[in-house]
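Following the same procedure, sequence and fold were stored together, as reproduced here.

>
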Amino acid sequence: TMLQREGLTFQQVARKKRFDRIGQVLLLIVGGYSFYTASKMSLVTLAKALGQKTSTVTAGFATLFLGGNLIKRLLPFLVRGMAPAYVLNKSNSK
């Protein structure tokens, strides 16, 4: 739609789009760094409160995440009354 505006050349539109992309990349970098910093500060604070090392708390979070993901993937197969042979037909092949 910017190319349909009167008074804007193709080079001006390209320059504006490039400037917008740079702004988007910078916003993603700042947001990612902010998330990283907040996560790290929360982890250190939790580790101090529990009296544990940060690596122990990190391993605990990783275990919770992986365990939750495993449970989420197994729940569709844990249907009451379903015979084991039906599981093969119900599984999603990706």
User: Anything to note?
Assistant: The chain has a mean pLDDT of 87. The longest helix spans residues 10-50.
